[in-house]
Structure formats: C-alpha cells, structure tokens
Amino acid sequence: MIAVLIGLLTGALAIALIGESIFDTYKVMWDGAFGNFYFLTATLARATPIILIGLGLALAFRAGVFNMGAEGQMVLGAVCAALAALYVPGSGIVKLLSAFLAGFIAGGLWSLLAGWMEVKYKVQLLISTLLLNYVAVLFAGYLVAEPFQDKSGSAALAQTPMIDQAVWLPKLFAGMSVHMGFVIAVIGAIILYVVLQFTSSGYEVRMLGKNPFFAEYGGINKQKVLLFSMFFSGGIAGLAGTVEVLGSQYRYVEGALTVPGYAWTGLMAALLANSNPLGTAVAAILLAALQTGAMGMERNTEVPLEIASVIQGVLILFVTAKFTLSWWKVKKKAGDVNGAV
Amino acid sequence: MIQAISGLTSVDQGDIRLGDTHLVGKSVAFRRNEGLAHIPEDRFLWGAAKDATIEETGVMGYYNKKAFNKYSFILKNSFREVVKGWIDRFEIKVKSVDDKSGNLSGGNLQKLIVARELGFETNFLIAAEPTRGVDIGAMEYIHEAILEKRNRGDGILLVSSELSEILLLSDRIAVMFEGKIVDVLERKDATEERLSVLMAGGKEDESSEKNTTTA
Predict the structure, then answer these.
(1) Which ranges of chain A have pLDDT less than 70?
(2) Taking CB atoms and an 8 Å limit, are A213 and B46 in contact across chains?
(3) Residue B82's domain is classified under what CATH number?
(4) Domain containing B84: what range?
(5) b/e A184-214 (16+ beta carbons within 10 angstroms → b)
(6) What are the chain B neighbours of A339 within 8 Å (beta carbons)?
(7) Is residue B214 part of a domain?
(8) What ipTM does the predicted assembly reach?
(9) What does pLDDT average to over chain A?
(10) B161: contact with A, CB 8 A cutoff
C-alpha cells in the first residue's frame, strides 16, 4: 500500500515537472478508467488477462518458487487455444472446451518443463522460466508466420485465421469490450483462494512457501508439490492467453499479448497483493485502471501516456525491493542448514 | 543420525527398522504414518514456519488425517479444539491461535512442537535437544511429558548435549564420538565422569540415549 502511495507521489512529481495541475490530471485519469460505463468495462477487459496471470503467479509464489515465465506460458496457451478452436472438429461447445483445455495444458506443460529442470538438474527456476519466455514467444511467432498464417487477407500479418463465431466467448454487455473471460478470472480468484486457504493441498503449497524445511520435516513431498504448483501456475497463465484469444482477439495475433505487457503487470499485481488471490484480482484491476486511465489522460491533457509507466516503475521498484529481501533471507537460511547427527 | 531415521537424509547403506517395517528409502510421510514422531533439533528451521499461524504450525501432520479432513478440506474447527487442548495442557502462552508462530517465545513454540509430536501417539519418538534454549518452566513440562510417554511403553530416542538431561531421563545411554557409537551404558552405570571421558576428543558434545522398550 505504501508502494502505491509512493508511486502516485512520484507520478505527481512528474506531472508537476511537466507543468500540469496534479489534481486535474489524476481526476482525468480516474475518469479515463472508471469515468463512465464504457471506460469501466474497458478497464475490466484489460484487467482480465492480468488477473489470470497474477493468479497463476500468486500460486507459484505461495509455493515459494519464482515463476517468471508467465509471458511464455500465456503466449503458448493462447496459440494452442487458437489452434484448437480452429482445427478441432466438432460443434462450438466442443471447440470451446478443447480450446480451454489446450490453453491450460500448453501453459502448464511449459511451466512444468522449468519445474522439472529445477527438480532434476537444479536449474534455477528464476533463470529457466525467464529464458523459456523467449523460446515460447518466438515459437508462437513462427507458428503464425509460417504454417498457420492467415492467408486470406491481403496484408500478410503474423496471425492465425479468425476462429469460428460459435467459439467466441460472449461479451457481458452488448457493445462493450469486457467478456466472459472476466467472470472466469474472478471465479478463478475465488477458487484459488478457497483451495489455498482451506484444503490440504493448499496447506502443503503454503507451508512449502513459508518454510520448505518445515514442509519436508512434516512429510510433505516437496518435489511433487513444486511440480504441481508449477503446472497449475503455468496452466492459469495459459488460460489468460486463452480468454484473450477467445474473448477479444478471436485469433492469435503476434504481439497482441506481449506488447501490452500483461505478464509483467500480472506479476506486479501478484507482488502488490502479497500473493493473496483475491487481493491479486483487485490489484490487477487497479493496475489495468492505471493503464486505461493514462490513455484517457493522454487524450485530454498534455501529460503523456508514459506517466503510467513512471508510476508502475516506481511500484515495481518498491515491491521487488521488499520481495527480493525476503527471498534473500530464505536463501541465506538454506545455506546455514547444518545436519544433526 | 536423526535425519537418517526421520527420512530427511538418504542413507547409502545399513538398515533402519521400526517394528517390522523397513524404513530405508521410504518417504518422510511414510515413516510418519508408520508411527514416527520427531521433535527436531532446530525448532525454527525444521519445527515450524515463522510466518504461519500457530494453528497452521500445529496442523502439520494432522491435516490429512481422517478426523480433520473431509473431501480434502481441512476441518479447522475440529482441529482448533485440539490445539486449544494442547495450549491448556502445556500452558502455552499465546495471544490467539491465529497469531504467527514466530511471535511465540522459544519455550512456548517448543512446547507447541512437543505437544504436536506427542499428539500423534506414536510408539516411537525422536527428541532432539528437546529443551535447548527454553526456560526452566517449559523444560519441566517437556521432561514430564517425555517421561510420561516412556512410562506408557513407547520408545524414545533422546539426543541431547545436556548431560544432566540425559542422566535424568534415560534408561540406556549410547555415546557417540566422531559419528560412531563408542559405547552403550545402562543408566545405573553411567556417571557424568564416565560419559565425559567417552565423549572426550569430540569437537561437539554429542551423545544419545535409547530407551529399551522398543528395539
């Protein structure tokens, strides 16, 4: 919360430097995010993938693992969902379900790969997940630039053909951009919260994150819980890509998911909320509002869009400082383990 | 040695049995289900999670037992009663069971861990430095509880660097030096002097004791 305040203060400073009224600018920003029904739904639509990404990461963080690969997991999920929606035979509902399944499994397996490398070869998750992003994004780019490219249009964009309308996720309100994916994201947040807080699997995940030694001592299978957490974490990130494809793009377009930085905003939401699933959803909506609000601000004032990036940058700085510190402590503790006789 | 028995370290050779069950190569969970309880040497590293609530620290090992688990949901209300029972019995000073474990004093956290491990009612218990760094009051509670368990006929492996504690609680004492058991004494033959001589030369004072009730 302090990080948010400092972020807004820094933003205020930057606005003052440009010579605009701070209060008016923030007012315009607020209007741009929540000002009327249209802007509100635009914010929620933007928040949808961010919530899902944030949830996936929150799960990984709760288990004490650093999954930085949400972007790759999301993109692979998206491209697999699009391909499933295009090429799986059957009625709309069959296509829809197989798209969801494909998106979830693709993201999950990609994440599981990193988890498996950690368990088997001690490849640091922080590094492997980060690097696998490039592999996934470029591979997805290849898929839509070569074998599955949409050849129908005149412009040869790197995108798949449009998916059948029967597979589209319905919009929540006619003419507004927010779609069923938002409902799915919110339900996902509630489910994840309940699972983490009240079930034995959730307990195992949380204890692994809080103290891996205690978890091991208590009979929790560390590797199994780590692999499961990674799979579901990546799977949920894959769902973020899936709902974007089925709910707003209706095809996989290269760059449509990576350019807006959904994955990194989702990471920030999870960090801001201290990996609480419900808090993550709220933080994701706020961060989305910051972005849509900044767009409104740019339309109506002299302040450029980048002010949102300034605020976000400061947020990241403060949140990661806190997070890295605690991660460091755990690592140090791990180094101090001395065997009992 | 404790880590080898409890399954936290893997063993290359030799055999560990609990009753008739072979434990080598088995998981920690398997060993715990077979009836092994363990008061760890380092309560903050192994015995608890500082950021977890007292209830969460307490429920470790119980959460998947039938009495506290329904459709994989942890039955917090039934478990809460159990924790409250422990708190009453050992007079653990807590603000609330939702308080963080790390906020407990060393002695109170140790009492919580002892209560948890005794609560499994297993026939074998490893007690590693069960009273290190706890106040006298807590120490007495813990000693009493360990003796009570012994008197019920359960086996206890006590590992301690406190000679007075060993002499007070043990039936049979094995002295280890540089990783090997150098001698096993009956309580009546053991004096502080004899033990000290056996231990001499070790950088750390390490000695262990084995109760005779189970082999």
Answers:
(1) 1, 153-155, 323, 327, 330-331, 333-341
(2) yes
(3) 3.40.50.300
(4) 2-160
(5) bbbebbeebbebbeebbbbbbbbbbbbbbbb
(6) 3, 9
(7) no
(8) 0.83
(9) 86
(10) no
